[in-house]
Amino acid sequence: MSNKGISLKIDQKPVIPKQTRSDLAGIAESAFIGLALVLSLWLLVFHFEHTLSPAYVVLSILIFSMFALVAPQSKPSMAENFLNIAIFWCCIFIIFKVIGFFAYHIPYFSKEVIVNWLWVAPASHIGVLLVLRGVFPGLFRAQISSRRTVIVGMNRQGIALARKIEFSPYADKKFLGFFEDRSVDRTGGKNQYRLLGKIGNLSDFVKKHHVQSVYLSLPMTAQPRILEILDALKDTTCSIYFVPDMFITDLIQGRSQSVCGVDVISVCDTPFRGFRGFLKRASDIVLSFAILAVICPLLLLIAALVKASSPGPVIFTQRRYGLDGEQIVVYKFRSMAVTEDGSTVRQATKNDSRITRVGAFLRKTSLDELPQFINVLQGRMSIVGPRPHAVAHNELYRTLIKGYMVRHKVRPGITGWAQVNGLRGETDKLEKMQARVDFDLDYLRKWSLLLDIVIILKTIRLVFKDSTAY
Question: How far apart are CA 94 and CA 199, in angstroms?
């Protein structure tokens, strides 16, 4: 099938909200508790010893790290909080008693300071917790939109997960309800939770309400039904997880994890969570700054040539789909006499009359993509990732290629795994775009920082050798 010269009309452009940080309030709470404990220790040290020795500085760092690096994932009752705090500080007291013998031989800490701190610290812990639990949930939820979440299957595991989400103020999830083919009376839900509809309506609901997380709480015997659900959700950018333990092939970043204390298995998720996400973003920022600093004179030269070659703007902007299907604006040096960015977009073809003489050289060497390093610094793109397509082309291919929208689980890239494997340039046949998507999904499964470096090096080599771009 060929799509050369195709014109597309888009009546409506979906808007998907940005992914948000789920643990911001929890980290803030833990950090404040750590600071309060350190402050209480310092006040006692200055009261009894009048000076802060290096030993207390080291102890303060250990105390702060112990609390600040662990964000709370659930919201137990205040009675459970008091019990947990009491058990924790009793354990600390026992540890101090056990090592007390050595303390006599290592006179780095004052006995008065330690003894008093062992009752001041729990009091500070409880006091700060009471204040913060009343302030931060409302404060941060007013500023951060929650990830819309639905659960498929109103069974024991699904209801348990729904309850955990409700009692987890820092999970950054807004539970909308269940999808279930059975009636509420048969599920045992007792009308406590909203039944959004039959499972067959799930995909349409996810698209219409921009649901970002779908949890499948279905038995293993429902495998055919599960495959139908996964197939229907491939035209969305939602993250998909299994609640029960089961094995399934062809996972996108499949791994076990805990959601509000409930174990789940990710089926389709971004590889850039936690430290991996930090590593990816940090490498993008460092490399982009370095590259822009080096190529700044080249950028000015290209801008002058583009301006002199034909009338029109130097920088061409076009709407593309970014992370989670959100529309972004991508920068390029203008290489054509036209700047198409409407509901009708025609791909560049060989010997295309719209391409200027300077533009032909820029496209051949990929120099027209250099302004996209600014997009990387803005957080809209990454150096390596699936190449972004025009919105009009996205709306076409998402209806023709199964799993096309899954490639938007990560930021689009200036270069990608598909491009260094010979899929650069015009996609005049559906099979070429299908191959691109296959490589993009393979990148999501295999991602590592080393793979990004390999792709960057291969891209540099292709700039001087490839003849498929025009």
Answer: 54
Residues 6 or more apart from 147 whose CB is under 8 A from it?
Answer: 19, 20, 22, 172, 173, 174, 212, 213
Instruction: Give the Cα separation of 311 and 15 in Å (integer).
Output: 33
d(CA 267, CA 230): 9
Here the contacts of 460-466 (C-beta below 8 Å, separation 24 or greater) are 462/419, 462/420, 462/424, 463/365, 463/366, 464/365, 466/424
* Alpha-carbon distances of 242 from 107, 195, 223, 246, 264, rounded to whole Å: 54, 19, 12, 8, 5
Collect all residues with Cβ–Cβ distance below 8 Å to 470 and sequence separation of at least 6: 348, 349, 350, 351, 352, 355, 360, 363, 364, 425, 426
What does the pLDDT look like over 329-346, one tens digit per residue? 899 888 876 555 555 555
Please tell me whether residue 170 adopts helix, strand or coil conformation.
Answer: coil
Burial of 49 (0-12, 13-18, 19+ CB in 10 A): middle
What DSSP character marks residue 106? S
Q: Which position has the higher pLDDT, 322 or 95? A: 322
Cβ-based neighbour number of residue 249 at 10 Å? 5
DSSP 108: T
Alpha-carbon span 340 to 253, nearest angstrom: 36
DSSP letters spanning 320-359: EE-GGG-EEEEEEE--BS----SS------TT-TTB-HHH
Domains and CATH numbers, the chain: 24-143 (no CATH), 147-268 (3.40.50.720), 275-465 (no CATH)
Residue type, 198: K
For residue 147, give the 3-state DSSP assignment. strand
Q: What is the pLDDT of residues 129-169, one digit of tens each?
A: 777 766 655 554 444 456 889 999 888 888 888 888 877 65
DSSP 8-state secondary structure symbol assigned to residue 429: B
Is 451 in contact with 272 (CB distance < 8 Å)? no
Q: How many CA atoms lie within 13 A of 328 on its CB side?
A: 25
Distance of CA 58 to the CA centre of its chain: 35
Backbone angles phi, psi at 101, to 5 degrees: -55, -40
CA distances from 226 to 162, 220, 223, 376, 417 (A): 20, 9, 5, 37, 30
Beta bridge partners of 215: 151, 241
Write out the two tokens for 331. Answer: 């920068």
On the CB side of 292, CA atoms within 13 Å amount to 14
Task: Put residue 289 in one of left, alpha, beta given phi > 0 → left and psi -120 to 50 → alpha.
Answer: alpha
